[in-house]
Amino acid sequence: MKDVDHTRQRAFPPLIQALPRYGCARLAPWTLLLLTCWVTVTSAAPTLEVISTAGFTWEGVAHRHLDAQGRNWVAYYAPDRTLHLRQPGGGQVVLNSARPEQGASSGLAMTDLAEGVGVLWRDKFPEKGLYLAQSERLDAPPMALGGDTEALARIKALRTDSQVHLAWLGEKAEPQSPLNNIYFRTLDLATQQPTPIQKLMPGLYPTLVQDGAGNLMAFSWYYYGESRRIFARFRAADADGFGEELTIAVADDITPVFNGYHINGHWFLFWGGRSTQEDGNFEYQGASSADQGRTWTPIRFASADFDVGSQSLAWDAGGNIVMAVSGTQKGEKGDRREVRLTRSADNGRTWSPLLTLRPAKLDKNYDARHPRVIMGAEPGQVLVVWEDWREIRSRVYCSFSRDYGQTWVLDNIPLPVAPNTNLHLRYDNDPLYREGERYRLLVTQALDDALDQARLLEVSFTIADLEEAAQQTRTLANTATDAVTGLPNFSEERLRQRATDYWSGMTQQAFTITYNFLDPFYRARYDLMGYLKNLGRIVYKDYVINEVRIDGVRAEVNGLVRASVPAFRSPGGATLSQPEREVRIRDTWLWMGDDWYREAVDAVENQRITRY
Amino acid sequence: MFAKNKLSIAIAVASGSLVLASMQSVQAASVFFPQIAVSENVSTIVSLIWRGRTNDASGNGGDAYSEQSMRNALHYRVYYKTADDNTLPCEEYNYVLPTSPNDIQSFDIGGNMGAAATRGVLFNDPSVNNNWNVTGNDWQMLGGFPAARAYLVVDDRNPRIGTAPVNDPSAYSLAGEAMLIDWNSGAAWTYQAFVQDTDDPTTVSTVPGNEFDYQREKMPNSSPIHVFPLNQFNSGYLVTPLNINDQMAAATNWATGNMVPAMNNYVAQIGFVTNEPGYGPLALYNRDEGGISGTLAPRVTCIGKVRVGELLTQGARDALANGGWGALSARRALVPSATDVNILAPVQPAWSGVTGAVVYKVEYNSGPITIGTELIDGIFNTGELVSPLFTE
């Protein structure tokens, strides 16, 4: 196992190297001031630390976990498929094979151990299998625990006392058996001896939950044959093995959102199941059991046709549960993701309606994804954070409540960290935790608008930081002014000028100039040469603006232009052309913090490169 | 299997009673263009060939053209929609336009290429034997629409008198190709039209062999296909639902040129139905052999395009950032209610069956992408018929 010296990288790198490539000079002045806060760690302001000193990507996989002492550990895959473990002191080690260029490592799970954490992944070096590395035993090679189960990349792990329990998906082919099964074994931390591998149950989504008293519940969806159902198996702390299968619900089809919990004496499972409608649209559902799984009470959320993509849940000992989900309301034009929240004050017996966390107008136009919920330091306090695209570039937004989400004392506040730089939350990890009054969030930050290379950051903040941010005026709308005219750039007058200038450039075929009018997401993908190469054959003249409608950071500019296609040779050898005619042009312009930019749209498929 | 059935039918007819052999049997053909698209940036050039004859039982070509009023004319039916809504039925245009033996006619069905003076016909086509250039003729059937998606069926309205025909593959009457071209980028996609060059449409038949029966062109259920990474590639499926044979009308409708009922609202469902043999359906598999559930199966009426994201739930999409594979399936979802033909019955056909749709997979990039270590800087835009080389 490689021990990489990250000492030098732990020191904050020069500012110019640390900044992502967003054309720093074009950002409004106050954001530059905020960026300098990255090198100053204080307890009175948000802080930001780069975790991924080995590199990261927009879709990169990362998990974090607190050990038994409450210290935070982070594991992540670098682009070269090395698996890194960041220790609480800031050092990092590589856990997987000495041949990362083979790219065989996949999957990730973490658990606390008696000391430190355990990290699990699937690999084919030194041989194919499931591996466990223990942070306090890095001098020993990782333990191979998967046997011949043909382990896949879905792994769950948890600790009860001095035992670590593992569940994973395997595809070992056996006669008269489904291909996909969930396997289980336990590792005794004291003796370092694992139990024999047990084929626990058929299914796709290994889900393992404990109740804090050593009892375990394993959940699965049986999707075989005619009797597709969700079921569980219970293992008492003092039992040798799991009990019989306990049917929870009939489920013809479910989505990958499949999460189990133990809350105040009740076992819970939530999943995206089908509604009863003939078309089979999905509906978020759940079930609870108070008798160790023998009987299950259905939970239905009034969420017809709401396709849930991710879910997060927090609770307290008083039976207050707050759950946030992101998903898409089917049947509506477009495919916008929303974040919604529901509450229970009676330990999950009844639930409030699943309602959006944002103004309805935002839900129609801008995505919001992957909310995370956490209870605060005082009873009633709930913090919800999510990835929000209302500013065209994604940002983390927050809402804070003192009454378990009934009302919000801080409502839709942007996290005052790294604005206008595309921040991303994953759907499948647990990035948010609290140390006293301070919250810490694992977040991915793209290095530019191509949304490919990125950095993994840990952001820390307090509610006081959010309160202060709530007092500040939203700056993206009205800070920048044109250096020549002195006009505020957000104005309609400025937008009209930009649109006119753009089409003037198109008319004169001054494409090296028109390129710079296009939105930064497009320019991050296409450099100038790429833009010039892919220009079409249409020739324009006499552009006129008919109407301008500004709606927040988006605007629609409707105009008329005369267009023609001079004769050209088609791929088939024919000579084609199109005579001049009047064409209506509908452009979308985006306010990106410093000026208006025309949103690039693929005319054939009506596809844009922006991601909001 | 299809050919064998046809052959057996033909042999049965040929070896049947002399009464049969001497009957006037209507020998006709049709050609089916499943995907037509027009917009301000896109045109479709349709090229249509008519041989004008079929072989007789002895393999001799040509025969007497005794019904001039029925000759040298092709019946065009274009079923189109102008709204981007997969659930709407199509409108229909119905034309009889001239042709001539061994003629080819290429035309811009969208009327975009400045060929108004030539009625949409392209490439200096002289109007001699095929006297197409007369008032009232127009091949710009979708001209004037800002955008439209359509399919086109052309039949030759050609009753043949004489010896009962055999199914001679070399004696095709109609054939065609279509090229969809994007003006702005120059990207183009071409496909060959399907041909149904068979037998008697005077009989409502429950077996393949009807002139407008294109069942054999449907996508096999299910067809394993690759799915590119969802955020880097645009992938979609061009879907044209097909009818099943026993819903075709009697030949009198065809003979008079009226629209065959219900050709504008065939409905198909399309979705990923990836079965582990002997077990249940999943949506897809990711690249790590991990099965992912949560498929959606939207309906397409008459014609439409379904983006790959529309076939996946949000959870499945998040789990498929790097793409994967799935088995695409299409089934005919048109079993009308017993009490109201305008609504569907509660029970619909199973995914395995003889119904379905013609499906093309289209893939293109939305910007420069890096595949492995190579930067792909231009535009690629491909289309392929989903038709793996296996039989059901």
Verbal overview:
- The complex is a heterodimer of chains A (612) and B (392).
- Chain A is mainly β.
- In chain A, 10% of the residues lie in helices and 44% in strands.
- The radius of gyration of chain A is 27 Å and the shape is globular.
- Chain B is mainly β and 392 residues long.
- Helices cover 7% and strands 34% of the residues of chain B.
- Chain B starts with a helix and ends in a 7-residue tail after the last strand.
- Chain B has helices at 2-14, 18-22, 251-255, 314-318, and strands at 30-39, 42-50, 73-81, 91-98, 103-108, 147-155, 174-182, 188-192, 194-196, 223-227, 233-241, 267-272, 274-275, 281-282, 284-286, 291-292, 299-301, 304-307, 324-332, 357-365, 369-371, 374-376, 381-385.
- The model of chain B is unreliable at 1-27, 54-70, 159-171, 199-209 and 245-261 (pLDDT under 50).
- The chains are: A mainly beta (612), B mainly beta (392).
- At the A-B interface, strand 11, strand 20, strand 24, strand 25 and helix 9 of A face strand 2, strand 7, strand 14, strand 16 and helix 4 of B.
